[in-house]
Each structure stands twice: as C-alpha cells, then as structure tokens.
Design a protein that fits this description.
This protein is mainly β. It is built from no helices and 11 strands. The strands form 2 sheets. Strands 2, 4, 5, 6, 9, 10 and 11 form a 7-stranded mixed sheet that branches. A 4-stranded antiparallel sheet has the order 1-3-8-7, with no helix packed on it.
C-alpha cells in the first residue's frame, strides 16, 4: 500500500510558475515510476508527465512539454512537478499516482487545485 499527498497548488497568473509536490509513504518509493495527471472541471482526467524509478527518464504530454518538469527525490520519497509559463488552460486539479506499468496507475492522491488567471 502506498499513500500519496499532493501539495503546492494555488492561484497563479498566466506566465507564472508553481511547484507541486507529492509525498509518498508506505512501500519503497524508489521502486515505483510516478506520474502526474490533471482533471479540469467537466473534463476527463489527462496524463501530464511520468518519471522513471531512478529519475533518469521522463515523459510529457504535448500540451506541457517545454513548460513543465517532473523530478523526484527518492531520499525524501517525493515527486515534484515544476510548472512554468502557466496558461489558463492549465487550471485543474492535479493528482500524482504510482505507475504500475502497461499504462496503468494506482494509489492516487487526493489532488491539489491549480488555478491560472489570465
């Protein structure tokens, strides 16, 4: 069992930055690849980024590539999402989750709200 707690959301202006954190507890954090997702009001949840267990590889949705950076600190059992050049369309609840392979994720956090004003 893994417990995930997201933090760092809030209100930002377009063009601004926010850094999200996802703290994990339970099983060995370094044994899991991790992902970030987001869900805007009235829309389906969408993939944002994924990072490998060691942190040496990352994947991004086209909509955030070049603006967002996913990273992790296995010593702190935490994964981060640095969001720069924010746009109003980035407004959503952001969730982290454990990647189980074959496109499957589990152990979702409660989410953190990000609101970007124009």
């Amino acid at each position: 069992q893994v417990q995930l707690v997201e933090s760092g959301g809030g209100l930002a202006q377009a063009g601004g930055s926010l850094r999200l954190s996802c703290a994990a507890s339970g099983r060995t954090f370094s044994g899991y690849a991790m992902g970030w997702f987001r869900q805007a009001a009235g829309k389906e949840r969408e993939f944002v980024a994924r990072i490998s267990r060691s942190g040496d590889s990352a994947y991004y949705a086209e909509s955030v590539k070049g603006r967002f950076t996913i990273s992790r600190d296995n010593a702190k059992s935490t994964v981060y999402l640095q969001m720069n050049s924010l746009k109003p369309e980035d407004t959503a609840v952001y969730y982290c989750a454990v990647y189980k392979g074959a496109g499957s994720y589990d152990y979702w956090g409660q989410g953190t709200q990000v609101t970007v004003s124009s």
